[in-house]
Amino acid sequence: MVVPGRGRSRPGRGRGRGGSTEAAPPPKGKRKFPGDLPVPQSAPRSSPTAPGPVAGPGVLVSQNWKRLLERKPLVAPKAAARKAAPTIDVASTLPENCVAMDCEMVGVGAGGSRSALARVSIVGHDGKVLLDAFVQPQEPVTDYRTHITGITRQTLEGKGVLTESVARRMAEELLEGRIVIGHALKNDFEVLLLSHPQNLTRDTAQFRPLRPTGFEKKTPSLKTLAEVWLRQNIQDGVHDSVQDARTALQLYRLKRRLWEKSLRKAPLGVARPGAARPAVARGEQAAAPRRAPTPSPERSEGPVTRKKKRPKV
Fold first, then answer.
1. DSSP state of 270
2. Residues 233, 234, 236, 240: what is their CA dihedral angle, to the nearest 10 degrees?
3. pLDDT in tens, 146-185
4. What is the pTM of this model?
5. Phi-psi category of 214—alpha, beta or left, where left has phi over 0 and alpha has psi -120 to 50?
């Protein structure tokens, strides 16, 4: 018994003319995929022992994967850019009226509790040294702080050491009318016995956007800022005032646009970010602002008449 539809070959499938077996062409309107086309006999196939992928039936394998693996970087480009230290060209963007300053102090008085000027360094907008000199304090030095400053008694007794008055005059001439950049400038102005307009000071210790994440409420050191923003290791032992001034200059260059924009937005009468507080000379105290007396209400002359209360109805 023959079941209809079984055991019979259907014409037009798997056979062409003359009974030859050939791949039937794909129907019209459909896209030709690699699986629909026969694999050429001359095309090389990857062997099972090769490290590359094994080709299945009817699939063409490209050997370009080896070159793609060779071109793949070990570190992502964005991560590599973050790890690389930023290249800073100070002279290309900073105006010529910018200078950076740093001072080194020694201890005077009982136990070296008070600071006195021992070295002053000022660099220009391009990082070139405008002034770098040792200074002999007027008072006897009781603590040279050599482990920080590198200054000894022989240093201050050598040639080319300036007096405090001469160093103060030279620094004042270089700073007048210019934007002064530095770290903790309040201390530098205090030992120089100088004052500078608040709108012309850029203190990297007071500018909050420079502070590392999580330490916004703490005043960072210049060494920390150099490690975080510039990938530089400074103050490893003895401090160099010229190097510190150039580091502050680079930090200002890095955040200059944001810095100046925040200064323009700050309202009048409010402490501007990154501006150093005005220094107070020795022996002087900051005068507290006086409040205007509140006017007392005028009292009418003559007897005071009281209003009679109306009886409740």
1. S
2. 160
3. 999 999 999 999 999 999 999 999 999 999 999 999 999 9
4. 0.61
5. left
